[in-house]
Amino acid sequence: MGRPCLEGFSHRLATETDTDEISALMDAAIGNLLRGFLSPDQVAVSRSIMGLDRQLIADGTYFVVHDTASGRLAACGGWSRRATLYGGDHSTAQRNAVLLRIGADAARIRAMYTHPDFVRRGLGRHVLSVCEQAAHEAGFTRAELMATLAGEPLYRACGYEEIERIISASVDGVDVPGLRMGKSI
């Protein structure tokens, strides 16, 4: 299936055939894991920017983690050498396919999600580590990401520091906060 990562799980690069499964995991994570941090209206607005970015799969920088016992997709996440900091295929306002400058720009950690059935097992930390290592091997010395309020504790625990707080989406007076974070890798 893929390379072993944590006991009972394996990871590999995502392919186009994974997109339906990835989208379903993202939908479950957005709907369930943001609830404790955002209002129902903010969760709905979050869906307007969050989701699958097929460019990451095409670039070979997006990973999936499966539960080896059930074969279920448990987590996913990636990194990018492109300027886009966050957003799915449908959120065109945030997209910028310009290639980053190795040695000058920070790689982007992107689209990190864990299925609600698999939280608190170290999968997010594992995917983040795999992404940082791959970005470092590609020549990047820094990484940046856009954290949700739900993801912020994980990223802080993994050494990311706040760069700026922003409104990552705003629709009809409903604002969704985000936190741009970075660290040396």
- Count of DSSP-assigned helices: 5
Bulk shape: globular
Q: How much is the average pLDDT?
A: 95
Strand order of the largest sheet: 1-2-3-4-5-6-8-7
Helix content class: 25-40%
What secondary-structure arrangement, pairings included, does this model have?
Blueprint: E1 3-4, E2 9-13, H1 19-33, H2 40-46, H3 54-58, E3 62-67, E4 73-80, E5 107-114, H4 123-137, E6 142-147, H5 152-157, E7 161-171, E8 174-184
Parallel strand pairs: 5-6
Antiparallel strand pairs: 1-2, 2-3, 3-4, 4-5, 6-8, 7-8
Short description:
With 185 residues, the protein is of the alpha+beta class. It has one domain: Gcn5-related N-acetyltransferase (GNAT) (Aminopeptidase), CATH 3.40.630.30.
Task: State the main characteristics.
about 180 residues; alpha+beta; Aminopeptidase; 8 strands; about 25% helix; globular
What does this protein structure show overall?
- This protein is α+β, with helices and mostly antiparallel strands and 185 residues long.
- The chain has a single domain (3-143), classed as Aminopeptidase (3-Layer(aba) Sandwich), CATH 3.40.630.
- 26% of the residues lie in helices and 31% in strands.
- It has helices at residues 19-33, 40-46, 54-58, 123-137, 152-157; strands spanning 3-4, 9-13, 62-67, 73-80, 107-114, 142-147, 161-171, 174-184.
- An 8-stranded mixed beta sheet has the order 1-2-3-4-5-6-8-7.
- The longest helix has 15 residues, at 19-33.
- It starts with a strand and ends with a strand.
- 38% of the residues are buried.
